[in-house]
Write a structure and sequence with these properties.
Order of helices and strands: HHEEH
Oligomer: single chain
Number of domains: 1
Helix content: 40-55%
Number of helices: 3
Distance between the termini: 41 Å
Strand content: 5-15%
Shape: elongated
Structural class: mainly alpha
């Protein structure tokens, strides 16, 4: 089942306008463009949410030392 912007915004706790802006900046979850409609797959939303998880306030994405 695909979700629209309102459903997705509600699911991630953001506003619809934030979600619309995130499509331009790349800050939000992956989405599908079907004709003029924007849709989100639940697995893409879940994956994006998982990427937002942090274990400390300042966490930088650094490659791990070998």
């Amino acid at each position: 089942m695909l979700l629209n912007s309102e459903q997705t915004a509600s699911r991630i706790g953001k506003s619809k306008s934030w979600l619309e802006h995130s499509r331009q900046t790349g800050a939000g979850p992956r989405y599908l463009k079907i004709g003029h409609q924007v849709r989100y797959r639940p697995e893409d939303i879940d994956g994006w949410l998982e990427q937002q998880a942090r274990t400390r306030v300042w966490q930088f994405d650094k490659p791990e030392a070998a």
